[in-house]
Amino acid sequence: MKKLAPITLFVYNRLEHTKKTIDALKKNILAKQSELIIFSDAPKNKEDFMRVNGIRRYIKSIKGFKKIKVIERKENLGLAKSIILGVTKVVNEYNKIIVLEDDLITSKYFLKFMNEALDIYKDEKSVGSVQGYLYPIKETTVPRFTPPTGSSFYCRLVWSSSGCCRVTLAANYRTDVSTLANSAWMLSVVSPKLFHNVPK
């Protein structure tokens, strides 16, 4: 396998959710060879100040990855802007990325699938992303293509568990992922049951 994609995790104020996400990630086969980049959004009000500080203390104590980098935002960006700016920065630096939000429990094969799929489809401009999950959908509402390999392709993007390469973003979105969110028609490689959400 080629150089692994960095895991980029977006967190805010959910400490217990984040701990479960990290615990599951650490059990992944490729965790110790992977770089983890964590974007911590700033509190949007006084009520969130203590919880955000608790998250920040915790993420600075994380071990079990090749390298860990923490980016603490000085002002609250909100989830959408935080992801857009974070993904754009990481993709431009590393050329590929695995994106996770703070409420996901991954299978131990999640990183393996994502990295292998990113390598396989890195030059395929019609594949916009690799997904670890797809919301339950009706076959009639979202176009699907199933090639002989058995992979499923859908025209859909779910940022909470996705991976993409700079070459794809450059070809279709000028490496600025803010335009990605507005595009409905791109192929996504999907593998079901590679993670599930932390129970509320």
Summarize the structure.
With 200 residues, the chain is α/β, with parallel strands linked by helices. It contains 5 helices and 11 strands; from the N terminus they run E-H-E-H-E-H-E-E-H-E-E-E-E-H-E-E. The strands form 2 sheets. It has a 9-stranded mixed sheet, sandwiched between helices. Strands 5-11 form a two-stranded antiparallel sheet.
Description:
The model is unreliable at 142-148, 152-161 and 166-197 (pLDDT under 50). The chain has a single domain, classed as Spore Coat Polysaccharide Biosynthesis Protein SpsA, Chain A (Alpha-Beta Complex). The strands form 2 sheets. A 9-stranded mixed beta sheet has the order 3-2-1-4-9-6-10-8-7, with helices on both faces. The chain has a two-stranded antiparallel sheet with strand order 5-11. It is of the alpha/beta class. The chain contains 5 helices and 11 strands; from the N terminus they run βαβαβαββαββββαββ.
Quick tags:
24% strand; 5 helices; 200 residues; single chain; alpha/beta; two-stranded antiparallel ribbon; Spore Coat Polysaccharide Biosynthesis Protein SpsA, Chain A; nine-stranded mixed beta sheet
